Amino acid sequence: MPARTGAQFLKGLQGDREVWLDGEQVTNVVEHTSLSGAAHALAEVYDLQHEHADCCLMPDPETGENINVSHLIPHSVEDLRQRHACLEKIAEYSVGLMGRTPDYLNVTYAGFAGRAEEWAINGNEQGAENLVDYQKKLRREDLSLTHTLVQPTIDKALGDAPHAGNTVALRKIGDTANGIIVSGARVLSTLAPFADELAVYPGHPLPEGADDYALSFCIPMSTPGLKFICRDSCSRPSNLFDYPLSHRFDEQDAFVIFDRVEIPRDRIHIDCNLEVYNFVMSQSWWQNIMQQTTVRALTKLEFAWGIATRMVDVINANQPPTLQMLGEIWSYVEMTRACLTAAVEGAKDAGNGVWLPDSRPFSAIRATMPGWMLRVNEIIRQVGSHNIFTTPSRGELDDPGLRPLIDHYLTGAGDVDAETRARVFRLGWDFAGSALAIRNEQYERFYLGSSSRNYVVAQTSADRTRAERLVDRFLQEEIS
Ligand SMILES: Cc1cc2nc3c(=O)[nH]c(=O)nc-3n(C[C@H](O)[C@H](O)[C@H](O)COP(=O)(O)OP(=O)(O)OC[C@H]3O[C@@H](n4cnc5c(N)ncnc54)[C@H](O)[C@@H]3O)c2cc1C
What we know:
Layout: H1 6-12, E1 19-21, E2 24-25, H2 36-51, H3 53-56, E3 57-59, E4 66-68, H4 77-93, H5 103-114, H6 125-141, E5 145-148, E6 171-175, E7 179-190, E8 197-200, E9 215-220, E10 226-230, E11 253-264, E12 268-271, H7 274-280, H8 285-314, H9 320-345, E13 348-349, E14 355-356, H10 359-384, H11 394-397, H12 403-409, H13 418-432, H14 435-446, H15 451-461, H16 465-476
Parallel strand pairs: 1-10, 5-8
Antiparallel strand pairs: 1-2, 3-4, 6-7, 7-11, 8-9, 9-12, 10-11, 13-14
């Protein structure tokens, strides 16, 4: 099947799945009050690839059918530029608020399949072959994936990785004629209600003896024993005027329980193979996926700059302290853009003809970005001041008695009418202050590990050659 339409995507969500929200098992994610906004938004993402086919679609290398460009396995800088254009188009739809639109895992699995030899070590040739086959299925059936990498936190002092005997973390508990049985739990499955399948691949490295936890596979959401417990919804169902963002962009996050789940043999990519599990994520995954996440982050920052600037214009608040804060957001935008350019233009052949962006700019931006995202929200609330709350709703604007008063008392500067003013500040609050905004702050802090960990990785993986040469000059010179 070639690239799907939104209607085909929504039809695919009608199948069985055990998704819990607000204490109830959801029977229909497309029609549920708190989920339908995001389901239809994602359907529009599927439609968008057809509306912008020149940028978003390409022929499948084997079948020739149209598939999304996010499935591209890059073989040149030009391919990475082409992928950038498609990722940007998708990110623009949700102005970067949906971090896990299907392109995220499309890029991930294209990266894995392009470097399948990294998965084929230590006797895992069959797992690597299954993975390559799965990526073909993913791109041809245009599936929506959710994923879960991290074991639940029960006792932080015991470390990140499960040790033998841990019955909370996801592990293999037996074999069957058709595959394996797994049990346990994992966090966190963003997009779960809107996914066709669930992907499990390595998170934190595992210690010696934890072989049973070394698993990777992809299975349909309808697989018996799979249970998803969603966090409280941030969706505001009423209308797009009142909640322009949280009406449609709550992508949801869920805790996943695997209650004796059978994984068919052809869906297994790692079966208790510690060496492969600990190896694959340290190779090309990072710089590959960071292109998608940084394109999204750039889009969100640029949107934030646009909102903040518009809020200031509406009330003519262009004073130097305010302009300074706007300039600060703009600087984050341009530093992110420069990082993306440096990473793509500095891309290299990974050794088998697959091209990967330069990881250095991405290491720097990943650790720093959460701070910028939080600061941007702070600036929007700062420049918005009380104006962010003097925002009549659709119902109040439509009331014939109130409307003339609102038109007199709640306009903006110059010829900005009351309706425009309300829309601008509502957008600002929905972006930087609503329940969805706070969820998004948490997403930015943690979606690829915490800042602390990412700064540690940046420091320990950095090339010190030049810095050491600069320092050594002073430590080694003859002092007479
Ligand atoms: C909204 C959201 C959506 C997500 N979606 C997904 C998803 O779809 N799939 C998925 O697999 N994951 C997802 N994640 C990420 C994942 O589930 C974890 O949240 C993430 O890996 C960080 O978890 P952690 O508690 O291990 O973080 P940590 O890195 O342990 O950080 C937690 C806290 O501990 C501190 N800390 C870190 N290291 C140390 C240390 N050595 N000593 C002391 N303190 C330390 C940090 O500064 C931080 O304050 C998502 C997370 C969020 C918040």
